[in-house]
Structure formats: C-alpha cells, structure tokens
Amino acid sequence: MNAIFELTTTSRKMAAPYLEKYTLEQLNTIPEGFSNTIFWNIAHIVVTQQLLVYKLSGLPMQVSDDLVEKYRKGTKPEQDATQEEVDLIKSLLFSTVEQMRTDYENKVFQNFNEYPTSTGFTLHTVEEAIQFNAFHEGLHIGILMSLRKFV
C-alpha cells in the first residue's frame, strides 16, 4: 500500500501548483467546452478521496458537508470560489493524504460499505477504494492539464 499512498501524494503535488500559479479569476473560469473549473477539479479530488475512503468506511470525514455538497460527483460550480476556500483546499490537499496513510497504518478502517463506481467498477474494501481514488485523481489531473490551456 505504500506505493499507492506515494502515488496519491504525487498526484497532489501535480495539482498543488495550479493553486499557486493561477489567479482566483483563472481558477474560477469555465472555458468553452468544459463544465467545471480548475479549482472545482482540485476541490473535487479532495472531497472524493474523503467520500471513497472515510464515508464508505463509516468514519468522520476531514472535510465539511458544505464542501461535499459543492464538489462531489455530479456537481458543477454554482458560484465562484473565494480565496478563503482556495486556502482551505491548499491546506487539505496533503493533510488528507497523510491522515489517510496514518489511519490505514493504525488500522482505523474496520468496515467498508460496498460501492459501485460510475466507471462500472465495484469497490469492496478500503484498499480498493484507496487504489481507485488514485485512478480517479489521475483522470482529474488530465482534465487540469487540458483546462490550463484555456484559462
């Protein structure tokens, strides 16, 4: 499992510079042909990791219900993100991965609610959820790489 935690950290390292390099206006821009923003995609990966790993394990998440409602699967930006929200996601980007690793090593994940993903792959264990999350983050890193060309 060490490799999958490192992979997740690597994807977060790829996402983090977007929050530094782009202005708040650019982070909130939805280019023509896209349905979300750079910021939405980064917040979405943080929220999704929490839902897949913690919520499906019946454990408290490290993100607020408000963030979940704004950035979970099936949402789109309804209003511009604020600088405070950007700062919050910056603070959660790596801390959530570190906490997941610590909790996994400490055997905090004792239960898991099976979940059929929208890709057709069913998650049966927290290990599968952690691995699927890395795949999911990779998809959104690709979207970020596309979005950056248009903002």
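(the above was protein one; protein two follows)
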Amino acid sequence: MITVRAYDETRQTRPTATPPQVTETRDGQAITFQLWRWHEDGERYDQEHFQLIPAENTWHVRVRRSTCWALTTPQLTEFVAEAGFTNITWHSPASSGYYQPVLTAQRAPSAQ
C-alpha cells in the first residue's frame, strides 16, 4: 500500500505554497503551511514546512526542509510493476475515504 499526493495535476500547475491550516492545541491555534520551489525538471521541488506555534504573547516558528519527488500515478504504477508487483489498483479519496490517492498491489508469487 502506498499513498501519495495527487501530483498529476499539481505538476502542471506547480503551486508555490499550500494554504494555511489551523489546528487547535492546548496553547491556542497553531498554523501550518508549506512553501514549494520547483526544480527545472518539473518533477521535484524543495519544500519548507512551517509551523507557527503559539507561545505566551508571541509565536515559535519551526521549519523543516526536504526535497520531494512529485511522481504521477502512471510513473508510480510503472515503478511498482517493474518491482514485480501485480494487481495494481488506484483508489480515489471518494472510494477509499482517505484524503489522497492510495495504491494497493500484491507481491508476485516467488518462483520456486
């Protein structure tokens, strides 16, 4: 089982940020958002994940950085098939109840 962002459209539009998300904590509302800087290949982006955490009369800021590979469903399907998996199936959020696409597959029986 693999779950990923729905990158098929995202790679076309290349957003530069995600909308802020507000979460209630015991100390107040925390705010989370991401900044994305796309590489020239259009497949990868550098991500900065910001969390603004309430602290008395100010905010603490946490930043995490990573590089992400925005694989489309056809690319990921091909990689999974090349790795020898079978019965590869994509499940949409509407059918799975999970907020992003889910791929399920079975390991091919081993030859004995």
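Reviewer note on protein two: The first strand starts at residue 2 and ends at 3.
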